[in-house]
Amino acid sequence: MLKPKVRIGMIGYKFMGKAHSHAYRDLPFYFDPEAEPVMQAIAGRDREGVETAANKMGWASFETDWRKLLERKDIDLIDIGAPNNMHVEIAIAAAEAGKHILCEKPLAMNVEEARRMRDAVKKAGVVHMICHNYRFVPAIRYAKQLIDQGKLGHIYHIRTNYLQDWIMDPAFPLVWRLRKEACGSGTHGDLMAHSIDLARYLVGEISEVSGMMETFIKQRPLGEMSGGLLAKTESDLMGTVDVDDAVAFMAKFENGAVGVFEATRFGKGNRNSNRFEINGSKGSIRWDVQQMNELELYLEEDPQGIQGFRKISCTETVHPYSEAYWPAGHIIGYEHTFINLAHELMRGVAHGESPSPNFDDGYRNQLVLQAVSDSAVLKKWVSISE
Ligand SMILES: NC(=O)c1ccc[n+]([C@@H]2O[C@H](COP(=O)([O-])OP(=O)(O)OC[C@H]3O[C@@H](n4cnc5c(N)ncnc54)[C@H](O)[C@@H]3O)[C@@H](O)[C@H]2O)c1
User: Fold this and answer.
1) Is 81 in the pocket of ligand 1 (CB under 6 A)?
2) Residue limits of the Gfo/Idh/MocA-like oxidoreductase N-terminal domain (predicted)?
3) What ligand 1 atom has the least distance to the C-alpha of 80?
4) 82 CA to middle of ligand 1, Å?
5) Do 62 and 148 share a domain, yes or no?
6) Which of 87, 114, 134 is the last residue before a domain boundary?
């Protein structure tokens, strides 16, 4: 039987554009996806830049205005890898044009935008997904299986740290990630959104939060991102940083668990440390993206004397997605999280079902982000409410 083809139009071709392009290219190499991704077109504003990117990354065509992608009949899915302030307009227009959507995180700048995006995809009946790629790490998928099987027992605690250090130099410019009108929030929507997603996936819904936020460097020279997490200073003029550099919050979960969350771009020496520990009545797990193939597991059922955290290399055929790659012990990396996510996206489109995490998850995530910001301003506990 012929596989359905999913013709993709992608907006934004730098950091995430590269990760998504690679995923679509490599998906059929490793997996036998239920629908075939076709790299139909990318959009960017600068003709030379977008043409070069299309040729380098293997896209069949390009546009210099993203709206053109929505008009094209030969595009089935819109992939949004542009800054956060563009998500709402693109996603709603794409849904109204009947296109399926993959949107980068955070879903939106605020709850109101996220709600409108969620309502638009539901009304249009298109498949929707949000790019919380860490859910697709084999070790995280396996952790979810262990928790669902009751191996850890009743969950009491989650503590997460998401630490980076790329903006610590005061001369680092005021890129879009540090301007509220472009990103909505700083470290919070960028890094903490991932930790919130993992907590919701592994532990459950958060019901109440108490948070704090800090901006350490309040003025920076003007400039823009040049790719990855690098940037170019473009002026001697200074501008105001109006988003958080660091954020922390305590949380209560609907199931009685409690959480402590920390995210910062001022964690000197931590280039990208995304880690957590979960403690249950029968066991605990620990994970850090810097050793993303490994899951640390403690089980009370182990005989006394040899109890302790063991390190599992989640590269065996029993571990989710691992069979598609290499023999046991032959590790995978950051880019494979996007391939696994693209695999679920293609399955979703083939079946007309939105995979998880989708815009419902993006919306719920935004409710938590908002409650933490509100709590930091009000200096008190805030309940998560619609
Ligand atoms: N899943 C993850 O772990 C992860 C990691 C990094 C970024 N992100 C998210 O991905 C999104 C993009 O971030 P990034 O790191 O790729 O940013 P980036 O600065 O590297 O790239 C942004 C891209 O958007 C393009 N763009 C900006 N305005 C545009 C316009 N008007 N029309 C067309 N294109 C436009 C830029 O030219 C660039 O290609 C953000 O929402 C960010 O939060 C997610």
Assistant:
1) yes
2) 6-130
3) 11
4) 4
5) no
6) 134
| Residue to probe by mutation, ligand 1, list 10, 11, 15, most atoms within 8 Å of CB | 15
For the Cβ of 133 lying below 6 angstroms from any atom of ligand 1, the answer is: yes
- In a domain? residue 163: yes
Question: How many angstroms separate the alpha carbon of residue 256 from the centre of ligand 1?
Answer: 37
Check whether residue 69 and residue 183 sit in a common domain.
no
Give the per-residue pLDDT at 276: 98
Residue 43 has phi, psi (to 5 degrees) of: -125, 140
What pLDDT does 385 receive?
86
Q: How far is the CA of 180 from the centre of ligand 1 (A)?
A: 15
* pLDDT averaged over 10-residue windows placed end to end, the chain, 386 residues: 92 96 98 98 96 98 98 98 98 98 98 98 98 98 98 98 97 94 97 98 98 97 85 87 98 98 98 98 98 98 97 98 98 98 98 98 98 98 92
In a domain, 342, yes or no: no
152 and 278 housed in the same domain: yes
Atom from ligand 1 closest to the CA of residue 133 = 1
Give the pLDDT score at 227.
Answer: 77
- Those residues with Cβ within 8 angstroms of residue 140's Cβ, 6 or more apart along the chain or in another chain: 134, 198, 201, 202, 287
Q: Which atom of ligand 1 approaches the CA of 82 most closely?
A: 24
Asked if the bond preceding 106 is cis, omega within 30° of 0, the reply is: yes
Distance of alpha carbon 288 from alpha carbon 295, whole angstroms: 8
Q: Is the CB of 82 under 6 A from ligand 1?
A: yes
Q: What is the rounded distance in angstroms from the CA atom of residue 283 to the CA atom of residue 304?
A: 14
Token pair 């960017």 is found at 44
